[in-house]
Amino acid sequence: MKAHINGAWVETKDKIEVVNPFDQSVIDTVPRCGPDEVDRALAGAVEGAKIMKSTTGYDRSQMLRRVAVRMNEMVDELARTISMEEGKILAEARTEVTRAAEVIDLSADEAKRLGGEVLPLDGAPGGAGRLGFTLRVPCGVVLAITPFNFPLNLVCHKVGPALAGGNAVVIKPATDTPLSALKFVEILLECGFPPLAVSCLTGAGSKVGDPLAADPRVRKISFTGSRDVGEHICKVAGLKKVTMELGSNSPLIVMDDADLERVAEATVATGFANAGQVCISTQRVIAVKKVYGDLLDVLAPKVAALTTGDQLKDGTKVGPMVRTADAERVSEWIDEAVAGGARVVTGGERDGACITPMVVADVKADMRISYDEIFGPAVAAISASNIDEAIALANDTRYGLSAGVFTSDLNNAVRFAREIESGNIHINWGPQWRADLMPYGGLKESGMGKEGPKYVIDEMTEMKTGYTTGNVTHIGDRRVGTGKLDLNFVNEGDIYQTNDWSALTSSEPFFAQINLPEVEYDIYDRKSAEKPRVKWMLAAGTLTGPAAELMQPLPEELLYDTRSDPHEIHNLAESTKVVHQEALIRLRAALDTWIVETGDQGQWPEPAEIVAPFEQEMHDWFGTPEWYRDE
User: Fold this and answer.
1) Is 419 in contact with 428 (CB distance < 8 Å)?
2) pLDDT of 511-560, one tens digit each?
3) Checking CA distances to 6, which of 39, 242, 385, 544 falls within 20 to 30 Å?
4) 0.70 exceeded by the pTM?
5) 3-class SS at 485?
């Protein structure tokens, strides 16, 4: 497959072979990207971020929804790609695809929910009359560095919320498993995302990951992987927003009142999925001495029944590890533990990248199989005297991603929840369980920040805080109020409505020029020598910037129009202009009625006579304008 860079699919002279970890057969090749590809990808991402920022939350939601639908249509194809390049069995790969589609669907929901809040500034000294608010805006360019063990779902956990938040994304997939990410990019483009909004670079971390992480064009980094690589990225990144989902050696505490059959079933389900290559796999089973031996007797045959082999064949329960070198490392750690007094209860035979699932008993806290992350199909059994020692052993690690306890005692369960040093806690189940909608992340050196679309979208956007002075209320697409509006800070597209010219202030004089079919009047700044000629005004308008075209006319039913009367009141919306600081700012006339007095076109009725049909309605809306006075 090709890499996707700067809006195009590209190849490089050097290739990386993607192999099936079971038999080392070559599945496909991908480009070996380097600094040139990194620079082009980021240049495109900067432009893509501008495009994405201009899209609406609704549009982004619709595109993501189409992606989720398409992924569900391609479950078998995507699952086979995952299984072939990563080694997990097909049943687990299908589950990964459906979960990934759900993550994208959840991201589509969040694209429509992205918003701010109203701040109670009147609770602060000097805050009277001020309205505060927050806005969430895109970060810009998000770098998603993803691991091999969930090559589609963990890509979606980063890319989905990033796109939902209006960002552009550069994906750096694991070198061993890039095909799932590239197929996902194909789906994104097919479903309408701008080509510049997403890039996917394949290659070594030192040649691609490091320069991407160090580049100042990247604002946000989301990384899932080992603790050591995460620390390296943080050092390289500099002043950037980072989310780190790192390693763990997850403990499962078993109390003497636990149902051992359920414990064994949970340990098998949460300790050996994906050949143990899951960040929250059950690695340390800490059982109180009263049930320690009995638990091993129940657990061992269930683990021994797990068949290992070709992940693409029906009946295989545990596939190969992703690399033969990783399987060799696991075997070395087990040998070290046995040399230190531990014993293998079942499993441990290695054939290439495959290792039969094993239970290792009598493990001590100072053994590497206990204190470090094994990331393989092995569970270490440790005995404890009581809950005090069990919690102490569970916490005796630099990691803190997930932990579980089995007990029927509510006091023990509550104590575990309060005292265990872990970001995810499970009562009466193993550590390896996650709903993709929940907040997910670790404590200590297991990372920082949370995943889950609802939570990570906050980390992939930035907050802006603003305030306005005055009493301004939003009505439909208008703001009605009597507060001060500084025309120096009017933005294109802002819409205001006011009954009071004194509410419009600026450092420079302004004037409004009203053009009636046969009469022209100038309304000058109140600081000027001229007196205002306008008597009543239900006013304001759309402030739209230079050279605005004619605004919409008043609804017919709102016009005071005698038609045959020579002194008829005309629809001013067709010809009204406001000029301020060399910019044309047009007044929109919906719900606006202006009543004017003139001496230039004959004898007009008395002002009170003109106002009468509207007086009650205007008082109901605005009260009496400050500047209304008889001449």
Assistant:
1) no
2) 233 222 222 223 323 333 333 222 222 223 332 322 222 223 333 333 23
3) 242
4) yes
5) strand
